[in-house]
Amino acid sequence: MRKVVLDTNILVSALWSKQGNPFRIFEMLFVNEIALYYTDEIIEEYSEVLCRAKFGFSKDRVESLLHELKKNGVLTDSAVSAVVFLDETDRKFYDAAKANDAILITGNTKHYHDQPFIMTPLEFLLTFGT
User: Fold this and answer.
1) Whole-number Å distance between alpha carbons of 5 and 17
2) pLDDT at 74
3) Residue 110 and residue 124: Cα distance in Å, rounded?
4) By the 8 A CB rule, do 105 and 124 touch?
5) How far is residue 123's CA from residue 10's CA, in Å, rounded to a whole number?
6) What is the pLDDT of residues 8-44, one digit of tens each?
7) Kind and range of the H or E element at 34?
8) How many of the other CB atoms lie within 10 Å of CB of 1?
9) Which CATH number is 44's domain given?
C-alpha cells in the first residue's frame, strides 16, 4: 500500500468539494488504497486550520474527520531535517514523508524543494491512481 502524507490544503480542498483530485485522494484513504502517515503536530495543524471560521466547517465534522484519520492512519515520529524552508510550518509534512518513505501530496509544491516524493494531487493520481 502506498504511504502518503497530506498537506493541510488537500484536506481543505477535499472538504470543500467532492469534485476534483483532492477528494479522489481523500476517498483512496477510506478504501485502503493508500495509507496516511501523520504526526501529532500534523493533526494539530489539521485541527487548527479546519476549525477556522473562514472555512465554515462545523467543529463536529472536523472532530469526526480527525478521528477517522487517526483511526485509519499511522501515527509516526520523524526527525527534524536541516532543510531550509521559507515557511517553517511546512517542515512537519516534509519530514514525516521523508522519514517514512512516503509521498507528500500538496497543492503548494512551490513551498517545498523539488523532490520526487513531493507531488500535486494530479501528479499522484496519474502515477499511482487506480
Assistant:
1) 20
2) 97
3) 16
4) yes
5) 13
6) 999 999 999 999 999 999 999 989 999 999 999 999 9
7) strand 34-38
8) 8
9) 3.40.50.1010
Residue for cell digits 513551498?
111
Structure confidence by residue, pLDDT tens digits, 81-107: 878 787 888 999 999 999 999 999 999
Contacts of 53 (CB under 8 A, 6+ apart): none
The closest alpha carbon to 39, from 82, 11, 81, 6, belongs to 6
pTM reported for the whole predicted model: 0.93
Compute the CA torsion angle 9, 129, 119, 7 (nearest 10 deg): 20
pLDDT of residue 111: 76
Residue 43 belongs to domain spanning: 2-128
Considering its fold, how many domains does the chain have in total? 1
Q: Which residues of 21-53 are buried (b: 16+ CB within 10 A; e: fewer)?
A: bbbbbbebbeeeebbbbbbebbeebbeebbeee
H-helix or E-strand containing 26?
A: helix 21-30
